[in-house]
Amino acid sequence: MSQYRHIAALGSSFAAGPGIEPMVDADALRSSNNYAHLLAAKLNALLTDLSVSGATTATILDVPQLTMTGVEFPPQIQGLPATADLVTITAGGNDLQFAGSMLFEAWSRTDASSPLVAMMAPEFPHGIPLPTEESIAAMAEGLIRVVTGVHLRAANARVVLVDYLTVLNNSSVQGHDWPCTLEQTAKFRQIQDAIARGFELAAERSDADLLRASELSQDHGLGSAEPWVFGFQPSIEKTVSSFHPNQKGMAAVADALAQLLGE
Fold first, then answer.
1. 163-179, pLDDT tens digit by residue?
2. Which of 54, 63, 190, 229 matches a 20 to 30 Å C-alpha distance to 139?
3. Which domains does the chain have, with CATH numbers?
4. Cis amide linkage into residue 22, ω under 30° from 0
């Protein structure tokens, strides 16, 4: 029997699993086949999944989140049960505008007249937002604050930071599932590397464990023989899943977590 009886999951879309059926919360774009659900099933544990697509470290900790459907979610940590003995955290990519900027540039290149381009344009007035040392440090500090907040609410919980699956690697070239240029790809890989660095800093400066999903998935980015993320989805109904973990990716993270935990 597993020592972990109550798992809680905090995070953004890379935890929630948009595009992976079935959805258990359409407003949060949260799947019942994301890594937290798969891990809970492996461990026969109770699960409190608080992840919401689009979340930042701030909306996990102390800022309400308004989703694209008009539903407002309270800060995720407010729902964290004191009985949780394992808490996973995947966040920070939206602090650095990773998935949003990829989606904006992909739509801009494939259908510049799309209403999505007009809607997202104000978020990216200067194009792809390259990370700085200051923005990486701020992301890491956000994660550290979340870890601290977890301990205040669930004092006995083991905390595991789960970084982002690799989206772009050396196999990722321009094509139907990745419509961006080599120059844009290089910039997005800078953001991707910055996210991984932010997680490393947070783990170094807190007592949280770190699952390096980015390393685990280096050979499974877009263009690889077995990608663990969805490619570009050029329909408005499905586009939220673009550049996010697919079912194989979520299963790989769940398996790696079980191994990390010794289960």
1. 999 999 999 999 989 99
2. 229
3. 6-260 (3.40.50.1110)
4. yes
